[in-house]
Amino acid sequence: MADTTLMSIPGQVDPVPVARDITPREDGRVDLIGLPKDRIRELFAEAGLDAKQAKLRAKQVFHWLYHRGVTDFAAMTDIAKTMRPWLAERFYIGRPDIVEAQHSTDGTRKWLLRTSDGHEFEMVFIPDADRGTLCVSSQVGCTLNCRFCHTGTMRLVRNLTPGEIVGQVLLARDALGEWPKGKMDFADEESETEYRADGRLLTNIVMMGMGEPLYNFDNVRDALKLVMDGEGLALSKRRITLSTSGVVPMMDKCGKEIGVNLAVSLHAVTKDVRDEIVPLNKKYGIEELLQACSDYHGASNARRITFEYVMLKDKNDSDEDAHELVRLIKQYKLPAKVNLIPFNPWPGAPYECSTPERVKRFSSIVFEHGISAPVRTPRGRDIDAACGQLKTAAEKKSRAQRDREAAEATEAAAS
Ligand code: SAH
Ligand code: SF4
Q1: 77 close to 102: Cβ distance less than 8 angstroms
Q2: pTM score > 0.85 for this model?
Q3: Which superfamily, per CATH, for 97-407?
Q4: Probe ligand 2: pick from 142, 210, 405, max atoms within 8 Å of CB?
């Protein structure tokens, strides 16, 4: 027999697994959560409905999934009784599994969630007097290894799917008991008004959980489109913020295709310091990043870009740093505000938080130059829900491995 080990395989070999919009389930049913309405229509047609029926049913089902939060086809009362079991045999309405739910003394809630293939990730809900913010994860782990971030000590396990991302919002609504009750008629204008009335707990979404959302762009975009869809969850793009550590080549696309508010994890104003604490800076430097901010579609004085700045003792917190931050923001004429985040320590972290006096002084310098620079109060510290503390029990990486992965990620980004 011929020795085939050196034979090249004919045709193109793509080492990257092809993304599938449908994650196969063991029972053969298709999970509808995360699919756009048109895709649901197609699936209904493939399952045997004629074009008109498929379109109507897709519209109805979509409304039940995202406006009413229903998880059982039997509850879809405007769909013929005989049709409901037909749907239930073929389709499924999923949610991430809840492994653990914690409640902080300050009202913050954290959920440890699990994907159907057994990966754990977290989501946090932060109630305030005038709003309720859900902090949503985009990946299990992160490739980027920012040195002050606990998530960065985990391996990247995988990207979350659109269904797992929008699933977090649905689950939060379930847990907060926030789906509209009352009459379940389709397109019922009256209940629509009730639903939008005041007193809603979950009003804002920030893509600031685990992971780098711009390294999972397509899934994050598809999920946020569902969150913004007027016939579903209907959250305004003004109430959604995507936070990036500075994936410059994706920022323009983000502005154009998603259009939500942008937060940028700047954290330092000199190359040396930013290279150290946000290693992605070695690939996309501060100037390039600020230029991308200046070009960001949709940023204006009414919708300013948020610069996140973690306060690290003796690292990035001097008066000179504050002045340089102001200078940079002015040089690029950015409609910006600065969020100062006191560093949340975690076991083995290589930094300490700046003193409260330092944070205050830094904030006043920026503020005196006409740029708002509030200090973010850490929330949910007692349950490790604060910024950058999200990390599941997943395997911890060694420092050497993290450095290697950071170098690889930078290289991959370059190609
Ligand atoms: N990957 C994205 C979004 C997730 S991190 C990003 O980096 O922007 C959300 C925010 O928490 C970022 O600004 C991040 O820098 C910050 N953060 C991470 N670890 C932190 C820590 N230990 N203390 C305070 N903020 C932290
Ligand atoms: Fe990843 Fe953001 Fe943490 Fe950096 S700060 S390691 S980009 S999650």
Answers
A1: no
A2: yes
A3: Aldolase class I (3.20.20.70)
A4: 142
